[in-house]
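Weekly structure sync, notes
Attendees: PL (lead), two postdocs, one rotation student
Agenda item 3: pending single-chain targets
PL asked that the sequence for the first pending target be pasted directly into the notes so everyone works from the same version. It is reproduced below exactly as submitted, 404 residues in total.
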Amino acid sequence: MSAIRLPESVEGRYDVIFVGGGLANGLIAYRLKTVRSSLRLLVVEAGDKLGGNHTWSFHKGDLTAAQHRWLAPFVVHRWQGYEARFPERTRSVATGYMSVTSERFAGLLGDRLGVDVWTGTAVATFDATSVVLADGRRIEAGCVIDGRGPSPSPHLTLGFQKFLGQELELTEPHGLESPVIMDATVPQSDGYRFVYVLPFGPKTVLVEDTYYADGPALDPARLRAEIATYVARRGWTVARVLREEDGVLPIALGGNIKRFWAARDGLPASGLAAALFHPTTGYSLPDAVRLAERIASLEDLSAPSVFKAARGHSMAIWKARSYFRMLNRLLFLAGAPEERYRILQHFYRLPDALVARFYAGELSWADRLRILTGKPPVSLPSALRVLAAPSHSMKTVPSLKDHL
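Predicted structure, written out during the meeting:
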């Protein structure tokens, strides 16, 4: 979608203004407009298109049947299963896997909202009920939702999942029938490293070089070279690079979610700005879908009502996922960076159904115990040292807030 020129004047007040046209805000706007078409909504995005340049993936078990139905138009690619590869284990998982592209996302949201999508529009300041554009114009709303991604917060302790991906057109078919969501048979460096591979067509494949690292610095030239090495190792020849995407995602190690929300001072938020992402994988689409449904169910869309709903939703999920943050502390702090892959390799010994529940964030107590049984992938003294430390006081891994 090309940038839409801002009208010379803005008449009336909007019900909801979304600052940021990324995944979470976009899905809330789409769901609201679907179930309550009379609402006056506005999405304001600084970039030249909604959704940026991203691929969002998720597992079939992450969503309910009803959620799958309304999200279905966004899904561009579907597979019946996926693989995970490690130095001492290769595993096929018979669980559905799906991907949404930013191109499809932008098209559907633009069709649903029409002229109430303003791209290429910078915002100077905003609060819970008004937005001031860079040109000085002020727009009023019953509620403003911040969906610009993670912002500096002293109340969260985070690690980093950073990546660079290239969508490649190959000269010959790649031969893959399903994604490889972790190929950790590559040399380990800068933390836990793996290559993520999505086959989009017989000769088209997305290859991402990914790191669970202590720092957020990306070296694009190096990662492009690593992708080229991996592609050559697979025996593939590149005809052309169709596009490139990169990013740095938060991995939650600890924090104080109550203080995090208190610092927002009544301003509603969505997505990463609301600390809504899977703590271990960084996947954000399932949480974005759940929040969209939660907000769309509200009769009162005033700022205080939406803030209360988003805050309560985020805090409840944060509390329920403390186990995942504990696992992350083991991943980042209990062993040498080049040995981190062993924890994931150990995890993938488990049955498909348990793996699916892990990605959905719905582990039973029996699941949690089973994940930790067997030969420990890290030394017991190191694990005990990490687990004994208060999660809110950790300083070992620098916070993502220092690098935004």
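Discussion points:
- The first helix runs from residue 23 to 35.
- The two ends are 27 Å apart (CA to CA).
Action: rotation student to compare against the earlier draft before next sync.
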